[in-house]
Each structure stands twice: as structure tokens, then as C-alpha cells.
Amino acid sequence: MTMELFAHPFSSYCQRVLIALYESGTPFQLKLLYNEAPESFAELTRPWPLKNFPVLVDEGNAATELSVINEHRALKHPGPIEPIPSEACA
């Protein structure tokens, strides 16, 4: 199952998550949150009723907040780069 990232295109927090996902080569589906896509906001309320973003949904579990999302990605889907040192996650 591919991860889904709910993100707004102008949010700097969302951009930081996108950078980490692209740099690590992690496969994901981007669900953009903007006025022309109300269905994305409707999908976002299922895993995270507060409607804050970014939200990463991986295997039905929602990770919220920038640092939590990036740590989840580093632990569950490590890539060729290590943006979070391994001793910091221990």
C-alpha cells in the first residue's frame, strides 16, 4: 500500500516533508489540499478530523506534524540518505 501525503502546496511544513520523501526515494501519493479539490479535504477528515496538515497515512495509520512524519519515514522507509542521525532515534 502506497503512503498518502495530504499537503497544501504553499505550506512550508508540507514542503519540508516533501523534500524528505523525494530525497529518500520513498514512494507516496500526494493529495493536494486546495480550494479546487474539496474531495482531498473530505479524505483528510477520515484519518485526521482536525484537518491540520501535513498528514502522512501509512498502512491506515496517520502521522501528523512535520517532525513526527519525518521520523516515521526515517524509521519505516529508510532511503539512501539519513536526514535524522540513527543515534537520535534510539
Textual characterization of the structure:
The chain has helices at 12-24, 38-45, 66-76, 86-89; strands at residues 3-7, 28-32, 55-58, 61-64. The mean pLDDT is 87. Strand 3 (55-58) and strand 4 (61-64) form a beta hairpin. The protein has a four-stranded mixed β-sheet with strand order 2-1-3-4, covered by helices on one side. It has one domain (3-89): Glutaredoxin (3-Layer(aba) Sandwich), CATH 3.40.30. The radius of gyration is 13 Å and the shape is globular. The longest helix has 13 residues, at 12-24. The N and C termini lie far apart (27 Å). The chain is an alpha+beta fold.
Map the helices and strands.
Elements: E1 3-7, H1 12-24, E2 28-32, H2 38-45, E3 55-58, E4 61-64, H3 66-76, H4 86-89
Parallel strand pairs: 1-2
Antiparallel strand pairs: 1-3, 3-4
Helix pairs in contact: 1-3
What are the key terms here?
Glutaredoxin, 90 residues, alpha+beta, 4 helices, four-stranded mixed β-sheet, single chain
Number of domains as seen in the coordinates:
1
Order of helices and strands: EHEHEEHH
**For the record, what CATH class applies?**
Alpha Beta
Fold-level CATH name: Glutaredoxin
CATH architecture: 3-Layer(aba) Sandwich
Brief sketch in words of this structure:
This protein has helices at 12-24, 38-45, 66-76, 86-89; strands at 3-7, 28-32, 55-58, 61-64.
